[in-house]
Design goal:
Elements (H helix, E strand, L loop, with lengths): L16 H10 L6 E4 L3 H8 L6 E3 L7 H11 L5 E6 H6 L2 H9 L4 E7 L2 E2 L5 E2 L8 H7 L5 E3 L3 H11 L6 E6 L13 H11 L7
Parallel strand pairs: 1-2, 1-3, 3-4, 4-8, 7-8
Antiparallel strand pairs: 5-6
Helix pairs in contact: 1-2
């Protein structure tokens, strides 16, 4: 896998978050868990099609990767994906070092980087100018990290992550299009459905 130094973020194609999310979900055939970060990231996960193994975060900025880490450690035989925006990841950069230290091989993290805090008014993030989030991940010890050059490369990296023996982080540059779905804001329903999907609660 190429590292951030080999494939600088600014040389990658700007893609569409909804399209990439749909491409990812289409590859999931074995009840893989998917944790969607707040805002447009989980709106697009919702829009890609409902699965009991999807968890839609509401209001917990920056916690998609930590929550996914917990799921990956609790169920090491299940592949776990986490979808997070660049602004949200900047809120919890320390989680990258924790994930690298614990090293769950079944965890894949996707950073959707459009360089702005889109939901709150498109204010620029540090990632828009000087911060390379994939390079940060590599520096934290997540050596299996790379920017996806285009859609085909994204799919290739996802395929490789499904059999990886260490945590994977995939950075994608995206446009500023809004999410295509509208997550139903019912925390209890989201939690209960996900627990059923994880096999830790029986349906009544």
């Amino acid at each position: 896998m190429n590292t951030a130094a080999d494939t600088p973020a600014r040389n990658t194609k700007i893609m569409n978050r909804s399209d990439l999310t749909s491409r990812l979900v289409a590859k999931l055939k074995n009840e893989e868990a998917v944790i969607g970060g707040i805002g447009n990231t989980n709106f697009d996960l919702w829009g890609a099609g409902h699965r009991p193994q999807n968890f839609y975060m509401l209001g917990s900025m920056g916690l998609a990767f930590p929550i996914a880490l917990g799921v990956a450690l609790a169920q090491p035989e299940r592949r776990v994906f986490a979808l997070e925006g660049d602004g949200s990841l900047l809120m919890q950069l320390g989680c990258l070092a924790t994930i690298a230290t614990l090293g769950p091989k079944n965890l894949t993290m996707v950073v959707m980087d459009n360089g702005v805090y889109q939901i709150t008014g498109a204010q620029p993030t540090p990632a828009a100018a000087v911060s390379d989030l994939v390079a940060v991940a590599v520096g934290c010890g997540l050596s299996n990290s790379a920017w996806a050059a285009d859609e085909d490369d994204f799919e290739r990296l996802v395929d490789r992550s499904l059999s990886a023996s260490e945590p994977t982080l995939i950075g994608v540059r995206i446009d500023d299009k809004p999410g295509v779905g509208a997550t139903r804001r019912d925390p209890v329903q989201i939690r209960e459905r996900f627990m059923l999907g994880m096999g830790v609660r029986e349906e009544l």
